[in-house]
Amino acid sequence: MKAKGSLILDLYIIKKFLGTFVFALSLLMFIVVIFDLTEKLDNFIERNAPFQSVVFDYYLNFIPYFLLLFSPLFTFITVIFFTSKLASNSEIIAMFSNGLSFRRMILPYFVSAFIIAVFSFVLSNFVIPHANRNRHIFEEIFVQAAPASYNKRNIHIQVEPNVYVYMESYSTTGKVGHKFSMERFGRDGHLDSKLMADYVKWDTTANKWRIRNYYIRNFTEDGEVLTEGQYIDTTLNIFPEDFSMRGNIVEEMNMAELKRFIDKQKLKGSENIKPFLIEKYRRVAIPFSTFILTLIGVSLSSRKIRGGIGTHIGTGIGLSFAYILFMQFSSQFAIGGSINTMLAVWLPNIVFAVIAGYLYFLAPK
User: Fold this and answer.
1) Are 347 and 338 contacting, i.e. CB atoms less than 8 angstroms apart?
2) Rg of the chain over CA atoms, in angstroms?
């Protein structure tokens, strides 16, 4: 009979947890969509955006992104809100009086947190990348002040270890780069050779770069050797699509694509992969934070105090924003090279896990 009562209580807490979470997020999404529509309505009208595209290509892909963005915050607020309500109504005292331990009480909370964490992980790694791709295309056509231009200027890029390419300009339309140069350095850091050309063009038939009006300076122990020519074909570890990538391309990659992209950048010897590593680790760290924030919320709000729900919610919102700011600051430190990228992403979870353990120790048992 006792087991049956515990099961009823578990289902009650899970229903309250998930129900409040869904209601709060739905209300927020409604408000966010209204504000966004108000801001962009002039663009939609001016550019004759079809109603069907606005709904299905933009807002249907807009909502999952913000669901994930606010998921940790509203998990925390949800737990604090309804747990404080249970505490203020003396329901938690009644549970303890009937022999239910605090450790047993938080079990349905963790079941709910697991459901939300899986939901967040699936969203961030499989749903949102595809949704972002469609949303970005829509924004380029109907929202941005001017059509997106992928013409690049003053390109410096590392294509292989110790091999660097420079172009004064590159046109994605013609797949042509002007004022091209390529420098190859030895292991000792000295320049071994430098190729300079008027322009380089992608040959779609041969799938190679064709370099026009070039000359190569090879530096040897005996001096410099100069080679000139009208054109030469070369295979570089770089492709036209690498120049036409959006700045927010990482948001459009699922986990497998992101891993392949990072491996490709490492193979090139690229030094600017930290933002991509941060995104990779964050897609696991943020869903995992659901468990930590849930434990903090339960431990913080399970005690009946003066001020009631208002005090608990105020404290919870403060801790939520502290977590979000901590995540942003640690990520910036990683990009700046101050700390390891994985440690930077997981550091907020580590610190708040310690806080969760301390609050759990203080919680009424």
Assistant:
1) no
2) 28
Q: What share of the chain is helix, strand, coil (3-state, %, to 5)?
A: 65, 20, 20
Q: What is the pLDDT of residues 245-259, one digit of tens each?
A: 655 677 888 888 888
- CB atoms < 10 A from the CB of 210, how many? 16
- Which alpha helices (DSSP H) does 154-253 contain, by range? 240-243
Give all strands of the β-sheet with 152-160 in edge-to-edge order: 152-160, 163-171, 176-185, 191-203, 208-220, 223-234
Matching residue, tokens 């595209």: 53
Main-chain dihedrals φ then ψ at residue 149, nearest 5 degrees: -115, 130
Grouping H, G, I as helix, E, B as strand and the rest as coil, residue 304 is: coil
pLDDT at 121: 92
Taking only the tens place, the pLDDT of each residue in 210-251 is 888 888 888 877 778 888 888 888 777 777 777 666 556 778
Measured between alpha carbons, how far is 205 from 149 in angstroms, rounded to an integer? 25
Buried b (16+ CB within 10 A) or exposed e, 235-253: ebebebeebbeeeebbbbb
pLDDT for position 116: 93
Measured in whole angstroms, the distance separating CA 58 from the mean position of its chain's CA atoms is 19
Q: Is pTM beyond 0.70 here?
A: yes
Distance CA 225, CA 74 (A): 66
